[in-house]
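Minutes, methods subgroup
Present: GH (chair), OT, SY

1. OT presented the first of two proteins processed in the latest run. Sequence and structure tokens recorded below as shown on screen.
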Amino acid sequence: MEYTIFGKTGLKVSKLGLGGAPLAGDFGKTDEDEVQRMIHEALDAGINFIDTAPKYGFGESERRIGQALVGRRDKVVLTTKAIRSDLTYDYKSTIQSVEDSLRRLQTDWIDLLQIHDVETQPYELVVNETLPALEKLRQDGKIRYIGVSTRVLPLMMRYMKTERFDAIQFYARYMLADHTAKDEILPLAKEMGLGVINGSVLGMGILADSPAPFLEQEILDRAKERLEKLSFLRKTEPKGLIEPGMRFSLSQPDIHVSLTGADTTAVLRTNLSFCDGQGLDPEDQRKVYQLFQGQTLF
């Protein structure tokens, strides 16, 4: 396992992090006992960064993670989010969201609390109520650092420039089929010393030849065209873009944590095998960067 320092927080984090979305069945049915085994195996393998959210399984992901971390909490950089995009991000609701997360996670503190999917909320509401609520919780010692999460990069930049955040998380914006985060977001994050989390490294399953069931046909059609242009990277069929997709993110020095959406020990072990410091062949990397320059996928 490779480790790095998570921006100005000074936290030592594993380059591969465990993403919580699949743990509660958001991408398909999961077995709770298998999820518990998988979380423990991830920790034993050196993963020390776990990211989840109340939205994942409506709290079930947090509950399962909290159960697995009993007796091991101090070994993990634990991150979650507030609140859920179907709720209003007002001050009171934000406080309640974090209190509920603390209870489900069976912990007294959360290392990083991120404002989830800020594109679903008015900017003024987030700045005037959500963020002050998190700052109060940080003052009270219930959270240590504050982050922001969205795949809308211009909005991400707007929040970054407030200088009130310690970390950012985007998803499906630095992957083989859409690497738009590299143009402005990553350089600014590096300049500001922000921790950077890359979610959905495989593009909602697109690069694993198993697209998420909620993706619209228009997106799937566009993705198919891009996958054809990326076929030179395939080593095996099917799912031949998993390895280059993971290596593409894990070897990016300005990304501190690449999340794996594993829900079984088999998937986890596969992704762990890519944590050897090896990225794409330099010529392949150059070719990938030339493809889809400045073009988002969805």
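2. SY then presented the second protein from the same run.
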Amino acid sequence: MIRKIFHLFFFLLTLHLFGQQKITGKTLSENDMVVTWVLVVNISNDQKVYSNSSGEFSIEGSENDELRFIKKEYERTSRKVSNVKSAMNVVLVRIPEEIEEVEIISTTGDLSKDSKRLSKIDKKDQLQKAIGLPKPPEKPREVPAEVKKVLLGAAFGSLDVQGTYDLISGKARRQKRWYKYEDVQLDITWIRKRIDDEYFIKEGIPAERISEFLEFSFTIKPEIRKYVKANNISRVMFTLESVLPIYVDRLKKSDNNIEQK
């Protein structure tokens, strides 16, 4: 039964792909600078792609299809396809926004003193939540296709052609890996904005390896990322304290091995 379903997938997918043409273009800012990783959605056939690191995109469609362009911190833009053979340059307009004040913590090395200062910052975050300040807009993300959902839909007579293609081509797997990497980098950035580099350097971690240390800490102590999401910088710092000696020891052993060679 499953084999017949997949044969039907391939047959319908082939018909779908040959009936479409490639619409190409580039996503740019108002200053003609490249805007990367813009979500491009063809409203007419529900195809979705992201523009690459050069701002270029290629999506299946036909003339008169409507394309929608979505990226965080930019206004949503729509364009109608007038000529599939002509590449389109799409200009995205940045949304004006106030820059959030970020306090960088210069630590003293005395954990008891630093923890008191960090607790004050945590209370400030709690107060902002209590008075109901609006949350920042979530990053628009295309939901990766899931095998169970695609098969379940097919079993009930609803063929998800795009989802099938994403699974077969490996796109869904690549999306999941990218989202995971992106979330880790955002958490690292959040911590580095709030703790001065000098704190890590004093503990024996070179500036160029701070991000590497934080990623290592997430592996050893996964709860750190929960504290980041809760805006609890004091708990983050306390937990990092327990990982610091482990990482520094590994760093020293690695350096000794290099010197011996």
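Chair's summary of item 2: Residues 130-137 have pLDDT under 50 and may be disordered.
Next meeting: continue with the remaining queue.
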